Amino acid sequence: MARRITGRSHGDPRTADTRAKVKDDYRPSRDEILRYIAENPDRAGKRDIAKAFALRGDDRIWLKDILRDLQDEGVLTKERKRLARIGALPHVAILDIFGRDGDGILLAHPAEAVGPGEPPVVSIRVSRGGNGPAPGIGHRVLAKTFPTDEPTGPAYTGRVMKIFEKRTDAVLGVFRILKDGTFRIEPVERRQPELIVDKEFQNGAKNGDLVEVEPTRASRYGLPRAKVLAVLGSLTSEKAVSMIAIHAHDIPHIFPADVIAESEAVKPATLAHREDWRDLPLVTIDPADAKDHDDAVFATPDLDEKNPGGVIATVAIADVAAYVRYGTALDREALKRGNSVYFPDRVVPMLPERISNDLCSLREDQDRPALAVRMTFSADGRKLRHTFHRVMMKSAAKLAYPQAQAAIDGVPDDKTGPILDTVLKPLWDAYAILKRGRDGRQPLELDLPERKIMLKPDGTVDRVIVPERLDAHKLIEEFMIQANVAAAETLEAKKQALAYRVHDAPSLAKQESLREFLQTLGLSLARGAQMRPAQFNGILERVRGADHEGLVNEVVLRSQSQAEYSPKNIGHFGLNLKRYAHFTSPIRRYADLIVHRGLIAALGLGPGGLTQDEEARLEDVAVLISGTERRAMAAERDTVDRLIAAYLAERIDDRFDARISGVTKAGLFVQLPQFGADGFIPVSSLNGDYYIYDETARSLFGERTGKGYQLADRVEVRLIEVAPMAGAMRFEMLTDPKPLPGSKRSFHKAKGRARASQSRPGSRGRRR
């Protein structure tokens, strides 16, 4: 029953220091709870809501049940222990300004989808007096958003915090000269049609150039027309398909002159404010083709008789904060980039080569400044203590993963032989101890092999390989994880603000979806708000070696939340850690540079520490670098798709072994395991039945036969069509549908759900 709250008007927003004054027997209505959550996105946890409405005792249990019901109904979602309306904008969001209303007020949409349906409209609030940023139509901005109470008009207002580079309506494509002499634009976006360019609008473009074009007009007949705005480079001469992704995702890739000048003027660091560790035989272990080396390791037995069998593990990380100071041109450009971006044919670095590949690269036998952490572990893998140091070090050896592993496996070479007993074996002994701690912690153990594209000298694909995962890789990974934990613990203990690396537990909605899927395979997942990685590991262990092992791994992966950066700690679910921060790669991640500066400030380690201005901006910076990380991942994925599509363009009509990597109402996505690339099979090409989409079982099944296709099924397909520049491939299914896992009862329940879905507006099945 809805009860009116006394002490405030119905729509009056709360402040941080006020809460509702209610009688002991009063409880807020659902609408009042939802209104509070909308008006207080930063204080929308269960405890915050209980405090706001003065709920105690049994009323708190009642509130917990109400919130759970709202989540089960799909009204609320839970992220980072805070509740939010499904489809609601985050309090800090990236927006694209698209126009003005009748009063001239700027209007924007969120840059990323926040839920089903049309994106919400945000009216942009400009600071009075001209003190704040002055955005305009076409700008992408970072803004704080506030829900409105108006029944009509924009759902939110937004206060601009930062303006990104101006966006345009330009289309990216490859300029092609056809045999008849006409000009076409081959688009790089899959949904963009080809464009015709008239000669007077060629603007100097040559065949194979990557160009920006502006659509000019659409013809009643034939393809639309466009004019070339700019030639961005030649794919033929630069041999760089990655250039498409760089421009398509607006990745800064050319350092401004003032940034280069600043980097060239930097002087090497000295011993001032540093301990001299140059005699400690730290070594770097990296991929064989690595150009920069930002971490070095060393280990030794702990001689303290109070810690029998223990070890001391040392991790030294390049001291980027010694050279990149807050507010400089170098710092502004590094924040703008957020992180380095890695393509098969090039790297777009966060920092200029003078910094990343020279002064901050821990080169063999050269003095280099570093931040180091010395960690003591007990014999069972528990970390007992740690200390941070600002040092000058000298790498004793530059090693590659296979090289170090070969030495441990009994095949040392001229470089690893002399340090095998003194450096490498103690490292492996320490890893064995750290692994005991990891095994006891039980992080999420998904075994997902990573493919690597090997290119020919001309930049085209030579082959795709799955590098062997060695103990050398795992050793470095675990050393880095422990160093990251130590950094977070130290900063938290010193009450120093930082950007945590956070990973939330799967949302309740995703848990329930996974639970329903597992039931179709006769597997169960316990209910409960306090999920642990070990529960997922138990499921994965039960299906190990089974036909549906790959399917279950894939669905468990998709149930996980996305990791991000935040000044508010919620822990790292996947690693099963209470606190975690990125510390070990400041050359390629701005997040790590922030943590370095925090340690320098908190521990009094000299100049270059975190400033008060930086602390005040941490929330905004966390949003920015989380966004640049997602941008980099999308660009890297798109580049791989384009390279593989170009590689397979000459193999039309060939047959391939494939695995179903996605199931939608529109059809099946299939991945070629040999190449790691995806293509699509439209549902319209699946013959012989009326195919219904079952979201729970991740399948398409035939209404008449009950047979169909499910996520992770291994199938044979034929390549029908390739659009190399868009990275798109279309296949034909050659494998017959199969009986799906589960009982007939599960089949009929799925069929009923599908029919119910199709009875709603906008739902439909396919008959083929």
Automatic annotation (TrEMBL):
Its EC number is 3.1.13.1. Residues 9-26 have a biased composition (Basic and acidic residues). It is found in: Cytoplasm. Its main location: cytoplasm. Residues 745-754 have a biased composition (Basic residues). NCBIfam families: 3_prime_RNase, RNase_R. 3'-5' exoribonuclease that releases 5'-nucleoside monophosphates and is involved in maturation of structured RNAs. This is Ribonuclease R. The lineage of its organism: Bacteria, Pseudomonadati, Pseudomonadota, Alphaproteobacteria, Hyphomicrobiales. The gene is rnr.
